[in-house]
## 1
Amino acid sequence: MNISVLGIGDVGLVTATCLAENGNDVVCFDVDSARIDLLVSGGTPIHERGLAELIARNVAFGRLRFTTDAAEAVRHREVVFIATGTPADQDGSADLQYVLAAARSIGEHTSRSGASRSSRTPTTCAKRRAAWARTRCSS
Ligand SMILES: NC(=O)c1ccc[n+]([C@@H]2O[C@H](COP(=O)([O-])OP(=O)(O)OC[C@H]3O[C@@H](n4cnc5c(N)ncnc54)[C@H](O)[C@@H]3O)[C@@H](O)[C@H]2O)c1
């Protein structure tokens, strides 16, 4: 399956690598070009035992690649995971601005024919917050 992961932080990078290891064709997009450059050059921005080897193996197999081109990532996917950060607001609720920005980039680069494809988020947002985000993105 063609999968795209938007947000290649701790969660996104590990998720993307495991999905590639399971045989999926995974494109990883992040707005942080330094992080993507590091990954493209063979570096690993986080330390998880065995992760660097898994990344290298799946890159070599052509199942895992990294980009700062949102259009490329959105076009590639049958399924897209949003794994951007959700830092706490002052009242303790999740700040969804990065999730919403990623959702908007999906909308910007989705053709009419691809609009019914599914999106999933592995974040810890409550269902109520996710519903609120959907409302914001559709307006
Ligand atoms: N890290 C954990 O242990 C952990 C555990 C459970 C749940 N979570 C949840 O998973 C989610 C991701 O957490 P994390 O720790 O990986 O975050 P992180 O801050 O490490 O990574 C987020 C990444 O998203 C990127 N980003 C920001 N805006 C973007 C955009 N518009 N498009 C694409 N990329 C964008 C950032 O550059 C960054 O690399 C959060 O909701 C967090 O609450 C994290």
## 2
Amino acid sequence: MSPATPTNAAAMRAMREWRRSLTKDQRWCILITADPDALASALALKRIMQARVRSVDIARTNEVTRPDNLAMIRYLRIPARQWQPEKAASYTHFAIVDSQPSHNPAYFDIPFDVIIDHHPPRPLPQEAAAPAPGGRPAENGGDPEDGTPPAKAAPPHVPALLDIRPGFGATSTMMTRYLQGLRISPTPHLATALLYGIRTDTAAFERSGGEDDLRAYQWLSRFADTGILRRIIRSEYLRAWLPLFSRAFRSLRDCRGGGVQAWLNEVDTGDLLVAVADFFTRVHGLKWVAVSGIVGKKVIVIFRGDGSRDIGRLADACFHDVGSAGGHRTLGRAEFPLSAVTPGMKPADFVQHRLMSRKLRPLPVQQSPAPAETEGDERDHDRDAHGDN
Ligand SMILES: [Mn+2]
């Protein structure tokens, strides 16, 4: 058994031992890349240690922009502040949850004493180059990020508690088991946070998640505030996006085969097109929807379908010759440069004309894969789930 994948009993022993070693003069900082799983895991770790140390702060290295994540932080009162590297000296100890020191250059130089994560183990760049004896195994290492300066040849800091178990669908599940093992009943807020962490990382058990995750979810349900959970789940849009919906409704046009299309003109990111397209999948009777707009110098078209036709093929048919286009049965995406729009034609008309008239290509030998859909910063963290997230 690799030391990187302890059994639950071994992990529990290590946790108890580490917890006993905590002292009242320690000032801890838990560092996270804030997404629901990381926020919840940090909250749980704080709960586990806070009575035994002087202070525990939670610091995030990213900006939180997704409405559900903002709602989670607000309704569950999660005290996550922006990480300020210049304040590092005010802490005596560091922990990282739902991520690893190798995941972000911001973490490279920090001597973590606690690492708890469910992503596959990945060594730091310098460890990959010259694995230290007794260091983390290097064979699983993804390629280290480029352009990061090699760390100084300081002896690697050995964490007191290292628990990396990729078998779990969420770090929140690991933290839930720690709470159970330590006989700590979570407050409604903590339980709700962990529930949402598991729910998000497993896509409500549609994408991943095993029996352990399900059992943790059930146990947490006894303590959680379902009203708050519902409010977080339903926080899908920001006030600032509403004018986009207005544009979408006004520009909505019927398309062949029970579809509709909307043109939003210039938007800040493709994520907004995705949010609007996803909204239309809630309308019964629309077989497919294409929501398009201009992001920078690119036109992006987001396709959503009910599965009655292969929407990825439709995306391919409409735009394969001007950019990248494709997808699968219910999701599709096309991107092409504004310069590909026929001269003299408005981009909106160009898109609409193609959506109305293009014929499917004979099944290509190999379907061109849809360009990866970026879901926004917070989820970009979930590297194992999608190229990531
Ligand atoms: Mn996670």
